[in-house]
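Archive entry: two folds, one per protein. Generate the first.
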Amino acid sequence: RKKIKNINLRVYPPDGRVRVSVPMRCSEDVIRSFIGLKIDWIRKHQAKIMQRNSRAPLKYIDGEMHFFRGKQYRLQVIEKAVKPHVETNGDALLLYVRPGTDEEKRRAVLYEFYRYRLRQELPGIIDRWAKDMGVSVNGFGIKKMKTKWGTCNRKARRIWINLELAKKPPECLEYIVVHELAHLLERYHNSTFYGYMDRFLPQWRIYRKELES
């Protein structure tokens, strides 16, 4: 129980633990009724967590499913004496590599594709949101991060985006851009910061949940 107005429900990895935050005077009957209404949603998200935990490591071979911009693509490895690259073809990712290329190199080629596509997409997103939010940005970078989707260097006025966002839906990428740009207006995650988020991207909580699922 907390000093809040609404009931909030979260499902946490790695074991699918459920936490319900409720107003101080919320009755047990109301809580049970709320959980009953959300039971399908809870089970869906628990199943996602369990599936993610049990997923075998990717080997970058024919037939594997890989994500790009929030959609699943079947990987098709094409060994050919051409410059290594990736193309999209319907629901397939065509991974062109030279004959005998090992798993590590295949992974590197795919991630270079992810990086290239983000570098194409990000300037327009950043410029548009910087203008809307009234902030100036000196640049951006892309790198793999283990615990964060993005970071902001307020002094350099530069933001960093997690390379893994290339796999997520486009709206999640925009959410992270807005989140990091909001840090140019407010350093800390406080009421002022979340006020900016509500003002510029009212649906940001939906996209955050997508990244947490």
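Generate the second and append.
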Amino acid sequence: LRPEDAAALAEISGLGAALRRAADDAGVRCVLLCGEGGNFCAGRELGTPLDTTLPSVLAYDEAYAGIFSLLQGLGKPSVAAVDGYAVAGGFTLAMGCDFVLATESARFGAMELKNGFPAAMNTALLAHLGPPRLMLEWLLTGDLIPATRLYEAGLINRLVSDGAELDAVGREFCARLIDIDKDAVRLGREAFKQAREMPLDAALVYGK
């Protein structure tokens, strides 16, 4: 791998390792993901030409896809606290969490399209999260989307004024989840995810 690709892979692998530790630690009741330096995450360095050799592509894609498998199977809630930019892989990472909190100035976008390739994993997530015509527009245009627009579409749980309030609201939001019986949270979360994939009559039977 080139140095820039190795660095990206190491960062993703580090996040995966942290999520596995959180999943295995009974003392962790909720996972809060946030960025540093005023931004959430911009994903891979899209300004640098991608290494399209098979080993590089497979290593990166496998590690990145594993993040979302870990988030789905975490067994406890995950919360993204977004300030600044959450674009490309960062948009995917935010949408892969159970809950999203954001500042009014935050910006999201599937910017892979601006660099000539589809936002494959974001496509899978957005197709399950929102109105199909709106989600398809965001995926195909690659435009920057204001946090207010995502809030209106139901993809953000809380919209706050600035980073300081985001920190406070993030802690409060997680504290509310932690205050509930952990088994009830785990089972309720799993039941919700299963029910979304079922016809209503099957979901009602599953919920008994």
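Annotation attached to the second fold: The longest strand covers residues 78-82. The beta strands are 31-34, 78-82, 85-87, 99-103, 107-109, 145-146, 158-160.
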